[in-house]
Design goal:
heterodimer, A: 940 residues, alpha/beta, Ubiquitin-like (UB roll), Rossmann fold, Dimethylsulfoxide Reductase, domain 2, 7-stranded mixed β-sheet, 29 helices, 29% helix, 17% strand, B: 81 residues, mainly alpha, 5 helices
Chain lengths: 940, 81
Amino acid sequence: MTLIKEPDLGTPAVESSTVAEVEVEVDGMPVRVPAGTSVMRAAALVGVDIPRLCATDSMDAFGSCRLCLVEVDGAKGTPASCTTPCADGMRVRTQTPRLEKLRRGVMELYISDHPLDCLTCSANGDCELQDMAGVVGLREVRYGFDGENHLDAPKDTSNPYFDFDPSKCIVCSRCVRACSDIQGTFALTIEGRGFDSKVAAGMAEPFMESECVSCGACVQACPTATLQERSVVELGMPTRSVLTTCAYCGVGCSFKAELRGDQVVRMVPYKDGGANEGHSCVKGRFAFGYATHPDRVLRPLLRERITDPWREVPWAEAIGHTARRLKEIQAEHGRGAIGGITSSRCTNEEVYVVQKMVRAAFGNNNVDTCARVCHSPTGYGLKQTFGTSAGTQDFRSVDAADVIVVIGANPTDGHPVFASRMKRRLRAGAKLVVIDPRRIDLVRSPHVEAAHHLQLAPGTNVAVVNAMAHVVVTEGLVARDFVAQRCEGFQEWAAFIADEQHSPEHLEPVTGVPAATLRAAARLYAGGPNSAIYYGLGVTEHSQGSTMVMGMANLAMATGNIGRDGVGVNPLRGQNNVQGSCDMGSFPHELPGYRHVSDDDVRGLYEHLWGAPILPEPGLRIPNMFDAALDGSFKAIYVQGEDLAQSDPNTQHVTAALRAMDLVVVQDLFLNETAKYAHVFLPGTSFLEKDGTFTNAERRINRVRPVMAPKTGKHEWQIVCELAQAMGYPMRYDDAAQIMDEVALTTPTFAGVSFAHLDRVGSVQWPCNDAAPDGTPIMHRDGFVRGRGAFVLTAYVSTQERSTRRYPLILTTGRILSQYNVGSQTRRTANVVWHEEDVLEIHPHDAEVRGISDGDTVQLASRVGHTTLRARIVDRMPVGVVYTTFHHPVTGANVVTTEHSDWATNCPEYKVTAVQVSLGRSSAAVQEADPSRLVSAAGE
Amino acid sequence: MTVAPHVRLANDVAAQFHHLPPDQAAAKVAQHLRMFWDPRMRAKLLSTVDAGGTERDDLDPLAVAAAEQLSLSAPGRPSAR
């Protein structure tokens, strides 16, 4: 395979469905294009590449480089083809002696102020300036090279991933426009005038000191070596590409992994990637070094006791030992004494085989997934109301939204590539409502300002959404036709929600949201006309997470905001394959495709195919497994790619449970926190070695293609199959494609999915079957999956986690841009320069009354434990609420989070923990459990 | 005071249905436990209800009513153990 070079048509496409077509002639060739299409693009469509430097089809035309001049019959002068729209009957000539002379003259000026170091330049062979010099036939530079120039401009190497060499800059503004138009950060500008014009970051600062978020859009846009990946400088130009999918957040960006041999030189966002359309963030673009980090464990490890040192063993011994121990434990303690956990960082195929192993080889339903601790309420809530456990829209849908409501999500940090798309829509005029205790960046960022920020008290989401629904119902804002035709249960719900107890005024003392603000936000949402809800873990990770999901679904149905472009209820999934891991049957009550294990027909289908009986009763969820481990009925666990000991709440409880088990098997890249309690470590593969599929937050199934062979010698699905076989259950596949074929065979929503189909069309959004062979970007268009959308009564029940005199503050947790979840990947990259440690954000008032100054080490204590970390005083937090991240094990934010969970799914209530903050002790006592809590936990 | 997990979790479910009439609420809670709880957890709940005492006292009356409905459901499902 060679490098994938994507065509660049110079300027963006014009939406063809909304405008008439015109016909033009380019160099004698006729072409029909939508009105408004640039001459440059029309020419490219008939194979005529007009020379250019400042134009690229990912951004609107700018018309500055003067290289793309053309002649138009009947028109004066030589207009720039990038900014000249096609008109019907227009006849264009792109190559004439006059144009050639003009272009050479322009190119001479560029080159007169450019280093003549092509042969030693890092962009040699990948430089548009170099290419254009050849295209225009540059043979001399009449101005010489001794005039005033920028060749001594100092290089900025402050960013760990790319260099900025202004001596090579042609001031085409592509980087500036990429930063503003695509990324939406506005960190770059052109400083100075005329000859003094130059690209500047921030206030002419080094990149690292500016607002730059290192998304890489400027590097991608740069036509020269001015902005260049450090890896290209150090390793040289890549020689081949493999198209694959990012392994970080739920956006699921498509990337070209560009390699020399089997070494990844850079990850380049793929323009045809349906989720990202050529954009990226600092994690996906640059933070892939963990895959080859020396901390990777590449051979299986065993030990009898968790206090023993690890012993490297051959695969056969590791698998044989694990299978024998699992069978011994079942013989001694019962079939239900063991279980497994799948990972949202693994492929659909890897996940599918784990749940199959648990159900068919273990003989129980004790399988769960890390989605338990993030989006399990989404699965429950959307299934109850709409009939399926998935978001309703594709990402592109936000382009048609008039009102965007962001609830409990921080997309600029958590889902940055989607956030850029959302911000583009907001800059174009859509209105924004943010519902979040914290003043997230989206509330006010360059050229974006929320119409309303509902800064609610943590734990009162349901009260707020009920109050919004109350306004809709009592002010006559219900979409009556939609409700009558598409929904059921409305009358009962409307009577319930219209009760005064749900009014904004009645709930204001509970939520802290001024009633007038809430009413205005509700009216804005109801008025749309296209209103979309986007939400994150600030919705789900509450004791009423599932209720809140249903409350949002109620609101969307009541206002008719379901089933078309620009609307919907959209979960922003935390990890890359949260959707997929749930789709694949990872929950203990559901087989693949969200079908309950009590369904005899569905169970029969799998029993026939798998040749093994399947229990009709739900198995244990992750928190239930911990409880069962402590009561002695659950003795062994297989954990695929999940760091329970760092990511799950109440760390002391988790580690006590892990210690109580006879066998803990961890399959991962690194010896993570959970591995400290493991007896078997099975080395896993990074996304660069995997062969399979990920399904992102918009239900888009994307191929994950291996760019190198597994460094461990085995694919993860092979390990699982061998383990199942060693336990006596035959489970064999020739390759990952066969696993997906089995998924398609048994799961109606995946019936049309295969690796071959994905390779052909790029990606599809499920349902993908005979009824929708190209997939389903927007769900519930003509009817809900369950038939009629169901209104569900959503009573507000306050959390039991309350602030007290001893613990007067409420802690809420989240993530930041540069780090990812427990940090096992991003902490092993240069991303640590942005976030060396977790910090505690605290309001100035709360800090002052505790004598805390910015940067002080503070103790963060809850009733279950305490930890120490550094304080950062910020007014983005409301008084009484503090915030931290959980990216670093040394901080261990989950030492303080509690056992409270969503009532329906047991998703932990990470977002509400009563705490006290005080000036800290020495870092020697970083994390401690409340001893009494440990005893009681063990006795639970 | 520490409450046993199955008691705490049953109470969490029950708390969500107090807005409904008692019979309807108990049926909803029982249905939820049937659909989402591992049989050993349901067995523990039934055992707590049967045993009486302080642990039963910790249970929301609605959870007790739901447990009583569960105990009336037809047996015969295979156990996870």
